[in-house]
User: What shape does this take?
Amino acid sequence: MTNNSPIRIALIGNPNTGKSTLFNRLTGLRQHITNYPGTTVLAHTGFSHIEDKQVQFIDLPGIYSLSASSPDEKVVFDLLLCDNKIDLILFILDSTNLRRSFFLIYQLAEFEIPCLLVLNQWDQAIRNCIKINLQLLKSRLPVPIVTTIARNGIGLEELRSAIATSLKSPSRFPLPQWPTIIEECRQTLLNAGANLSLNLKPPEATRIIFDSDSIYLKNFSPSLHSQLSQLQSQIQNRLRQNGFNLSIAEATIHYRKIDKLLENVIQSDGTIARSDSPLDSILLHKFWGPVIFFAIMFLVFQSLYAWSAPFTDAIESLIALAKDNVFLWLEKFPILQSLTTDGILTGVGSVLVFLPQILLLFLFISLLEESGYLARAAFIMDKALAWCGLNGKCFVPLLSGYACSIPAILSTRTLDSPSARLTTTLLIPFMSCSARLPVYTLFISAFIEPKYGPNIAALSLFFMHFVGPLVAFPFAWFLNRKLLRTPHQTFVLEFPHYQLPSLRNVTTRLWESARDFLQRAGSIILAISIILWALLYFPRPPELASKIRSEFLKTHANSYPSEQIHAQLSDPNSPLSEKLQHTITSAYLEQSYLGRLGKFLQPIFSYAGFDWKITIAILGSFPAREVLISTLGIIYNLGGDISEESADLHSALSSATWPSGPKAGYPIFSLPTVWAIMVFFALCLQCGATIAVVAQEINWRWAIGLFLFMSFLAWLGATLTYQILSKIPHFL
Amino acid sequence: MNPGAKPIQLSSLHPHIPARIHQLTDQNPISSRLAALGLLPGSIVSITHIAPLGDPIAIQIEKRQIALRRSEAQLLLVQPQLDD
Ligand SMILES: Nc1nc2c(ncn2[C@@H]2O[C@H](COP(=O)(O)OP(=O)(O)OP(=O)(O)O)[C@@H](O)[C@H]2O)c(=O)[nH]1
Assistant: This one.
């Protein structure tokens, strides 16, 4: 160990043993969460001092074994394989399940990294009347053993001093004693590796022997890969001929050892009585299970949808207040005024409004997870989601997507299967979030309700909520099952003990999620907002305003005496001067860079029946979907301060007609166009914040890819809707 | 004990009947994952819950509850211990 590289300690163990809880106790809040490069596997790192030495702790994903091809396991394997990367492993064991916990330790022994065993959940062992003879266990193993109750911080001091001792005088777990024939095969492999001038390490040799679909082989170049896999099949055939069932050989060998190690250590009462909690007979009941599940989900959804509203409103009014003040201060500097109010403050507001929903969702999820219910919920819902490559745990994030994609995507961190996390993240933006609602409301109440009445209107609104999922789930199925053929992830879900949530764990989760969102996605959302502002503001030639003004005076000269016009225009609050102001704003929007882009792209959107005004409104809604309404307000000379229920907006839209071309004189917002706009909004990713969060949680490539893909789907969906409906005489 | 009982797939075992694991299907990567969890020949398992949609199932091994999909449970051949 050199002096300048920090000491690195990894926490490794089965899922749900309490690694994260222990990690939080060891590092406090000085931690950092990222993905391992190229994966959706989360890496938690944090610093702490052990006897004045700076130590970096790494919380690795919980795994049961090294044997299969999941990204989690590869992350652990690769980290341990690198030379000198890890100075000490803390193996976290579940005291109520030592036998299983030891399996991973036996598998990892060949890395020969110094280690320390932590028997966590000691309180649960006592509660469940599992008697562990610690003295005996210690006498059988050459590595130090500490018992902890991470949840209450009990045993932490002992752990810290044991870590200090281990760093000074490291001890390793005994190497496995393989049966002679397996040992021979390992030697064959290691020699072959040396001949190929590969520095094959013992753990790699073992994995090549036991795992047929090993991803470790894929680390090598194609030619080495084919040589090694040839060797692998020779060795595996040899072992099979000697009577080994390779799927279970390794486990059989290790478990035999473990049973010997634990003989008389665990005083079992010898019974195999039912161990499921009485709560399970209700919560997993055929009838009551789903009823309770949907009741809880309703509560979660309601909280995101409704309870967050007062907080969101408060944030919005604060931002509005700040805008009003800044607006007055900066009256003399129109560009700065517009930048701070429409760019920066709007951006800050659009970051902050997500906080209430994020905190509420994480509050619920961590309560559900900590109590042990989330695993049961996943059990109940699994079949409904398994067909397209997801699993039961994906339900809560997907449902939350109906309120807002941002908290929902952040909550995919609770999914322990990386491929399910990726698919769920990509599916969430298709769920009809609450920002799409005002858009649907506007068009349905302006065009569908007047014609078909409230029942069809309600039905249409209901239907719009399913357009996204109807497209997205089959696509996920196609992607996972046909295109990528993601290997069927084993669904192994252990039911944790029911217990009261730990307040400390819950608050840590809330704090982490909020901090991460503000620091990472927040800055991107702000940047997007400022860029969009600039595209909408510039170039803004001053002549335009005077030109509009003189045209305005000309058109109104006939209807009013000229003194009256000038009197009205000198009062900025008079109806006439508001009208002039709205006309100027609209003209500026039309000639802005974004307006020009809209006109440039309009031919593409004409297939969906959109005119340039609709196209600009769609482009302008990129910072947030509901902005569509204020952009339409601006374009139709009504100002941006308008709601989806505004009668003025409804009548402006319904009286808009095509100025020229084959459809000249016909209404722009015909029913096919209206449906096309709604389908477009159901499928598009016009939401800068979502893109920022996808980039934060996966990477930029996926985020931009998803944006392009959804934009294409939205265009395709809108075009098909328009073209098909236009062929139906009824809709014309 | 009834060692002679014909092995059946774990997925077709009746709930709450203890059974002894007889064998795991070879040459299947999922088998080795199940084996890693301690689902090895000789261990006693039983089905404790079936999800409302019929899949997955929860099984008890030692003192813990684990949920498995039926497609995974099919890889385990078990002998019901009827007269226990
Ligand atoms: N009773 C008891 N519960 C604990 C103890 N340590 C952790 N827990 C609880 O066990 C559950 C799982 O803890 P985590 O720290 O999330 O476990 P983990 O090993 O990080 O789990 P993964 O993230 O799935 O790998 C939480 O509900 C904790 O509150 C303990 O010593 N005693």
Observations:
- The domain at 8-77 of chain B is CATH 2.30.30.90 (SH3 type barrels.).
- The two ends of chain B are 6 Å apart (CA to CA).
